[in-house]
Amino acid sequence: YLLGAGASFDALPIVEKIPERLASFASQFKIYDFEKVIKDKQQSNIAEKHLFRFDNLDAQRREYEKIKKFYEDIIWLKVESKNHSSIDTFAKKLYLKNDSNLKKLKYILSCFFLYEQTRNFDNRYDSFFASILESITEIPKNLKIISWNYDSQLEIAFSNFTDYSIEKSREVLNVLSKGDKIQDDLDINKFTVFKVNGTTNVSNKTEGLYDIIPDFKVTQESLVGSFLEIYSSQILWRSHESRMSFAWEKPEEDSIYKLRISGSIRNTDILVVIGYSFPFFNRKTDKFILNSMRNLKKVYVQDPNNAEDIIEKIKGFFPNSNKNFAISDPKSIEFIPQIFKDQFFIPIEF
Predict the structure, then answer these.
(1) Closest CA to 225 of 214, 241, 239
(2) What is the largest CA-CA distance in the chain?
(3) What is the distance between the alpha carbons of residues 167 and 165, in angstroms, rounded to a whole number?
(4) Which residues pair with 47 in a beta bridge?
(5) Beta partners for 338?
(6) Quick check: 227 and 70 in contact, CB under 8 A?
(7) SS3 label, residue 278
(8) End-to-end CA distance of the chain
């Protein structure tokens, strides 16, 4: 399976919807008049509710200053995302300029995606696991998932089935994100989820992964506290890094990670593409992924609006001749569009 943003459409906004959803996110952190909020005990959004977790005015004022800065930065990202064709475009501009605001972009975007997932869930992931699982202790070994998404929809769905924590679900699903330390003895024959753009968490430079929120069922008030804990601390800000990573970023992290992907998907004969349009930014990684599938015979493309166009894009990755390409005869691959959207497509061959 190759998943793009459309695979989480019911939980998270696609590119063109991000600015307006960021505006809605920002409204939860807008405090117009601190004094009036405290005097009237006003709790009209989650930031105001957060203030009343503290029982003295000085602590409330300190939290207000943190919230104010957080709100300003959300608005900054909303404006910039609207002024560029996509968040990715703006991010690459910051990356090429070696602009430290790239870190701010990742932190705000991570918090935004986490917030959205405490409110929304794409039930198709639930249906997917209901369809493929015979028991919660056995995940089909002949399935692999490569996801371009930062989200945790797979982990949330599996947690719903098993009552495992998100951390335990991540471990059982064998979720490997770009930037993870991957063991040399990785079993390439087991179910694996590769997150090629990283994930919405942060990591300490010495201690590894740190969950901004450990559970997507957290209260809204504690959610604010989790966001501000790292975001407002200069010490933690310096010592932690976002685990989001764009396709064109940190190529030094890619080599071992790509080897693991290549080994794991080498024998793929059926590829299912869901909600992914093969954007130009990702072309090098996409070409690598397709070239790694040496036995590819059939490609299903699930998209309610653009399945045929996406198929033409995929065909463009295969050269006219088979020289230096793993697949002996790319013309032998069968492409099949799927336009329904209520469930993730599962091939009859499964």
Answers:
(1) 214
(2) 74
(3) 5
(4) none
(5) 302
(6) yes
(7) coil
(8) 12
**Residues forming a β-bridge with 195:** 147, 177
Which ranges in 246-336 belong to alpha helices (H)?
Answer: 254-265, 283-292, 307-317
User: β-pairing, 175-177 with 298-302?
Assistant: unpaired
Supply 327's token pair. 């697949």
Give the model confidence (pLDDT) of 271-284 as tens digits: 999 999 999 889 99
Structure tokens at 191: 């179910």
Cα(151)–Cα(102) distance, integer angstroms: 19
Question: What share of residues in the chain are helix, strand, coil (percent, to 5)?
Answer: 50, 15, 40
Distance CA 4, CA 149 (A): 6
Report the distance separating Cα 170 and Cα 153, nearest Å: 11
Rounded Cα–Cα distance for residues 201 and 245 (Å): 11
- Residue 303: DSSP 8-state: -
Identity of the amino acid at 233: S
pLDDT tens for 279-338 read: 988 999 999 999 999 899 999 999 999 999 999 999 988 865 455 555 656 678 999 999
Which amino acid makes up residue 149? N
Mark out the alpha helices in 2-152 (DSSP H runs). Answer: 18-27, 34-40, 46-51, 57-83, 87-96, 101-119, 124-132
pTM as predicted: 0.91
